[in-house]
């Protein structure tokens, strides 16, 4: 990870290397924290944060679900993120922002009510999450032996740090088996999501994505559905079985970090022509035009930093 100049922590901008916490912080031991992933893109008018308000609202919603009382408003956190990008003098094409909150030092034991809440905003330059080659050629996907936890055992709608142990184990398994990424099924065997991204497939010209029954409500997934609909592509949200994805014409992942990443292979089955498909490329190209401020229609999703 490339260090930046400053981090916003509990209302103050401090040097990157001074953003520290105690080893007995509650979240380190019991896993209750909430995170977001947001991106700023270098447009012709300077950096612009994509769907800033949506991501900040989701952070506070996740905190409410997990009983973490973040003492800042959406407006305060938005303003701080804008200033964070401005202060750090970035030069790359895109900047990743990580707003998060965790339980700090002062309480031990599972009951966390009295644990202090630490709120942090960090940003750094970060390239393609699944690689530049993956964006062009497509990635290899493996269905994980680890399922997405059911709604009766987890809070899948919260972007909570504890949820990512599940993703971490699935990702490790996939990479060690020679794949790029893992796809998790739910407890009934239907497609849920990748380790940090939503899943789409295309069959007979129809764009299909699973419902968010037990997984995060993805902001990028919602954006891609809007783009596809505006392009005249039929979009269907429904359950997807393992067998269906093997015979998909095209497939791709979406997320703040993953952006729009094509899938060329799943469990040893070649998807379509074994490379980025034509509809995927069209959606991907439109997505990047949008986040880089080249489509006026979607400019309202960008928060420009003067």
Detailed description of the structure:
There is one protein chain. With 306 residues, this protein is of the alpha+beta class. Helices cover 27% and strands 28% of the residues. The chain contains 8 helices and 17 strands. Strands 8, 9, 10, 11, 12, 13, 14, 15 and 16 form a 9-stranded mixed β-sheet that branches. Strands 1, 2, 3, 4, 5, 6, 7 and 17 form an 8-stranded antiparallel β-sheet that branches. The radius of gyration is 19 Å and the shape is globular.
Topology, please?
Layout: E1 6-9, E2 12-15, H1 26-30, E3 33-35, E4 38-43, E5 46-50, H2 52-65, H3 74-87, E6 94-103, E7 117-125, H4 132-137, E8 139-143, H5 164-176, E9 181-185, E10 191-194, E11 198-203, E12 206-209, H6 219-230, E13 235-237, H7 242-246, E14 250-255, E15 259-266, E16 269-270, H8 278-291, E17 302-304
Features:
306 residues, alpha+beta, nine-stranded mixed β-sheet, eight-stranded antiparallel β-sheet, 17 strands, 28% strand
Average pLDDT works out at: 96
Number of alpha- plus pi-helical segments: 8
Terminal Cα span: 26 Å
> Could you spell the SSE succession in H and E letters?
EEHEEEHHEEHEHEEEEHEHEEEHE
Structural class from helices and strands? alpha+beta
Shape: globular
Q: How many DSSP E strands?
A: 17
What is the beta-strand fraction?
25-35%
Biggest sheet, open or closed, and with what strands and sense?
9 strands, mixed
Describe the structure concisely for a colleague.
Helix content is 27%, strand content 28%. By secondary structure, the chain is α+β, with helices and mostly antiparallel strands. The protein is globular.
């Amino acid at each position: 990870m490339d260090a930046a100049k400053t981090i916003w922590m509990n209302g103050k901008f401090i040097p990157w290397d001074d953003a520290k916490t105690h080893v007995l912080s509650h979240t380190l031991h019991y896993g209750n924290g909430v995170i977001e992933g947001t991106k700023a893109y270098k447009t012709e008018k300077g950096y612009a944060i994509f769907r800033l308000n949506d991501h900040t609202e989701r952070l506070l919603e996740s905190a409410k679900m997990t009983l973490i009382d973040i003492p800042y408003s959406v407006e305060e956190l938005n303003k701080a993120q804008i200033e964070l990008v401005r202060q750090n003098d970035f030069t790359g094409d895109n900047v990743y922002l990580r707003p998060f909150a965790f339980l700090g030092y002062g309480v031990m034991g599972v009951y966390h009510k009295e644990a202090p809440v630490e709120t942090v905003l960090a940003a750094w330059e970060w390239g393609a999450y699944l690689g530049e080659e993956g964006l062009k050629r497509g990635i290899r996907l493996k269905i994980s032996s680890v399922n997405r936890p059911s709604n009766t055992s987890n809070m899948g709608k919260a972007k909570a740090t504890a949820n990512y142990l599940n993703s971490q184990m699935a990702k490790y398994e996939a990479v060690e088996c020679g794949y790029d990424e893992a796809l998790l099924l739910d407890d009934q065997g239907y497609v849920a999501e990748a380790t940090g991204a939503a899943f789409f497939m295309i069959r007979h010209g129809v764009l299909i994505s699973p419902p968010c029954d037990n997984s995060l409500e993805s902001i990028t997934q919602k954006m891609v559905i809007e783009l596809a609909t505006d392009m005249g592509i039929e979009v269907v949200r429904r359950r997807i079985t393992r067998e269906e994805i093997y015979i998909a014409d095209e497939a791709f992942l979406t997320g703040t970090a993953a952006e729009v990443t094509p899938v060329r292979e799943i469990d040893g089955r070649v998807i379509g022509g074994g490379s980025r498909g034509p509809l995927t490329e069209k959606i991907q190209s439109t997505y990047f035009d949008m986040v880089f401020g080249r489509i006026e229609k979607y400019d309202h999703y960008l928060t420009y930093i003067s």
